[in-house]
Amino acid sequence: MASETGHKGQVAELAVAFDLANRYGYSISWPVPNDPFDLIATRFTEIKRVQVKTVKHRIKDGKAWLVLDFTDGGGKRYEAGTVDLFAAYNPQDGRIFYLPFEDLNGARERWIDPKKIYQLGGSL
């Protein structure tokens, strides 16, 4: 039986794959195990290596935040050239937004006001 974390990851990957295909017209492939990304999205000659992240909900100083963790399972940051796009899936409302790798500026995580999260990236 899959772990709860593994199940959440699978749900997020499927949701992102559907969104990329349905809303943006990408064809979706899954890479071989041990690649540093979860999905391969292609459209015409464009290829994007997509890393899917599930948004975490946290309270800090009495305020609700959405937290995005941009590290791999071992706590390491992704290296330039290994991922093109991060897809953040919010399991509470099913919404997805996208952040290009370049927009991370080396950050390990980002705390975002839930009211402003969909002003980030949001489209491809």
Main sheet: which strands, in order across?
1-2-3-6-7
Number of strands: 8
Largest sheet: 5 strands, mixed
User: Rg from C-alpha positions?
Assistant: 14 Å
Structural class comes to alpha+beta
Mean pLDDT: 86
What is the domain total for the residues?
Answer: 1
The gross shape turns out to be globular
What is the percent of helical residues? 10-25%
Ranges with pLDDT <50 over ≥5 residues?
none
- In the CATH hierarchy, the third-tier topology is known as Trna Endonuclease, Chain: A, domain 1
Q: Determine the number of helices (DSSP H or I, runs of at least 4 residues).
A: 1
Fraction in beta strands: 25-35%
- Topology as a string of helices (H) and strands (E): HEEEEEEEE
Terminal-residue CA separation: 35 Å
CATH architecture field = 3-Layer(aba) Sandwich
Return the CATH class.
Alpha Beta
Protein name: Group I intron-associated PD-(D/E)XK endonuclease
Organism: Paenibacillus hexagrammi
InterPro entries: PD(D/E)XK_Endonuc, tRNA_endonuc-like_dom_sf
GO molecular function: endonuclease activity
